Amino acid sequence: MAPPSRDSGGGSSSSSNSTKRKASTDRLISPPPVKRKAHSAISQGAVASFFTPASQKPKERTVWTQRSGDESPPTLLVGRFEPEGGEKKEIKRRKIAAFDLDSTLIVTSSGKKFGNDPADWKWWDPTVPTRLRRMYADEGYRIVILSNQAGLVLHPDPNAKGPKNAGKAKVANFKQKCAAVLAQLNIPTTIYAATARDHYRKPRAGMWREACADYDIPEDEVDLEGSVFVGDAGGRTAKVTDVGGKAAATAKDFSCSDRNLAHNVGIKYLTPEEFFLDEPPREFARDFDLAKYPFADAGDGEEEKEVLFEKTNTRDIVLFCGPPGAGKSTFFWKYLKPLGYERINQDTLKSRAKCFKKAAEFLDEGWSIAVDNTNPDPDGRKEWIELARKHDVPIRCVWFKIPRALCEHNDAVRALNKPLNPEARSALPAIAFNGYFSRMREPTVKEGFQHVLPIEFKFRGTKDEYAIWGQYWTG
């Protein structure tokens, strides 16, 4: 007997299913999705390297370290390259050929001024690697690279705003680019990258000294006459030439730091054009020229006899007018303090109001005072002139006529040399100089001064102090 139908309406089940199947075949059915092969962004070589035991991986030819001259965080990035097989030890290399990196050995292949892509580089000229290899292999030179890289931050401030990993990426890209450059060059060499405005930064000789120490070349044994520094920062002036009847302009160099470094260490300086292309030298100029400030030897330890300042009043105010780094504080301690003047200085008192308060106290007690501030404009000086009138004392002005480039030099010398920095002052930012020179108006007797005493700069110190001061510290 046939099983009963499950259709409650009594109709045939097979008929109903057949109708549904027919209806479904009348509709368009989308084809199944095509399976696509996934492509990884990771190269097969990288995958293979990842799974290769460390003992079987090729040795990294460039080894990176970081350095600091004191207990502060490191600011010098050092990459030492050793080709496969190492370096032959039979030659004692005392001639050093030092090179800048950007716009000297390499440029960007994209044409950008600065490239972030580690692959965005090419040789400054096709002859560069061949020339350096020949200097190393045939001429006995030690080849090193000394580069200012202020755009790199080795140890970011944890409290600084902005992306935390941006600095790390720039450092990583720089290392990758340099490793590629050194690998193509393929001779034993080291690149030194100064990332801060400290004693490593050119024209200061910190990187040079590190290179001498790393290669065990005592500085007094370097063949200075045979050594050379090649870099594009030579202080060259702008030049206009005629090319096919049209004027072509060549821009001036952005600084003179490479030429000044060569001067500091006592070696020859050449531009890339002179060294690699044998082009004739171009004219150059320094914003600050040490030749204008030679050491004046008093002879046999005699005291300098010139009188720069005399006390002509029983009680008075002496107002300094001069830029940061002009030597105002040194002038006070050497010439006014011995005459019984008390010092008013905003760096120590922290506010202008406190300066006036302290000055009034000294005047009420019968003291003479020296106002050791910059006082660039007549409006600011007028307040001190009014204070003098209120206390019925004369006011004199000592005007330090010092050019900006010299002040910046003095500021760098002071900040980077503890023996010449008794007040432990830090280097000043550019805004400190910009602010003074934008507001500066020459002081005159008409403002209410008893007289104005101009002071020109002259190095006044010992021979040992001049050995420090008489180097280039700014570009």
What's the short story on this structure?
With about 475 residues, this protein is α/β, with parallel strands linked by helices.
The global form is: elongated
Give the full name of the CATH homologous superfamily of the largest domain.
HAD superfamily/HAD-like
CATH class of the largest domain: Alpha Beta
| CATH fold assignment of the largest domain | Rossmann fold
Class by SSE composition: alpha/beta
CATH architecture of the largest domain: 3-Layer(aba) Sandwich
Query: What's the total number of strands?
Result: 16
Tally of contiguous helical segments: 14
Number of domains: 2
Strand order of the largest sheet: 1-2-7-6-3-8-11
Uncertain ranges:
1-31, 34-49
Main beta-sheet annotation: 7 strands, mixed
Protein name: PNK FHA domain-containing protein
GO molecular function: ATP-dependent polydeoxyribonucleotide 5'-hydroxyl-kinase activity; double-stranded DNA binding; polynucleotide 3'-phosphatase activity
GO biological process, one term: DNA repair
Pfam family, one: AAA_33
